């Protein structure tokens, strides 16, 4: 019988479970603290619970159920890519991107213990594979295998924080950690599980909602649901084109929900005064990187509190696009800035280990190193 995972259950659910086992309510608080603050890997490690209760939980089929970082690859830039093993044998990928100052020249980047970080971003997956089929993305080649559960989504974060010994809630500095839900999968096609994971990460693990960003390829009905959430992460729309014709060519989902309908849905979100909506824009050489495209983007975003992240497309095997030239990237960037849109050109991370944006594909496992 497959074990039922405790990780992923929020305090009300844990309280109901304790009550069903005839236990007092405070046991749920102890269990939540062990799961989400101490990040216990097994029931044996939860010394605050009596041995008899731990036995009761095991007899009822429960275990902690954290995903396991089965393999890792480390980039020369310090990025780490993990193959994360789930209970049923499926795998997803999670990426750790330390953002701190450049290390001293004599620090070996492949020795993680000698590499301090000031801030770090964790890129989290939401599905095994993806159904959206963006043509520039390696993950798309997998198709969709299944949705992740809330515990599997939040559990990737817990496992990576434990590996890097980051204390988020107890005396640590949560400001150092940002989460981006931009890994494998489309979070808004697994909406309920994603939002439950978000609540676990914020309410139970103490990570600020302002430090989490979910990226969608543009699932219009889910954006409208998202607009009604009382507490939500930041939102990024993966725009990637300046008009529907180009977008439909590289992102067929545009035929279902076009750019105008997505922008209209975004306008229903009650953004805070200082909150930007981020537009991700993957630059593909000769396709969407010309000055007329930049001008079209400016026209689309007029009047919105928008910022743009430009991403230089990362090549991948079997994908027939070209990288934009540095001149085209620079020109595009400057045109958006001149048009009044805060624009950032994202530094490519982990390109040598296929961890960069759009490159997560779990079948490229040969160069991964088995974790001890
Ligand atoms: S870019 Fe994102 S939404 Fe598009 S296929 Fe890849 S994982 Fe799915």
The residue-averaged pLDDT reads 89
Order of helices and strands: EHHHEEEEEEEHEHEHEHHEHEHEE
CATH-defined superfamily of the largest domain: Aldolase class I
Oligomer: single chain
- Unreliable segments (pLDDT under 50, ≥5 consecutive)? 100-115, 363-372
The major beta sheet can be summarized as:
11 strands, mixed
Query: Percent range for helical residues?
Result: 25-40%
What are the distinct ligands in this entry?
iron/sulfur cluster
CATH class category name of the largest domain: Alpha Beta
Number of strands: 15
Number of spatially distinct domains = 2
Give me the Rg, rounded.
21 Å
Label the structural class: alpha/beta
Topology-level CATH name of the largest domain: TIM Barrel
Tell me the layout of helices and strands.
Blueprint: E1 4-5, H1 11-20, H2 26-37, H3 51-59, E2 62-63, E3 68-74, E4 80-85, E5 91-98, E6 120-123, E7 127-129, E8 144-147, H4 150-163, E9 177-181, H5 191-204, E10 212-216, H6 220-226, E11 234-238, H7 244-250, H8 259-266, E12 277-283, H9 291-301, E13 306-312, H10 326-338, E14 343-346, E15 369-370
The chain binds iron/sulfur cluster (SF4).
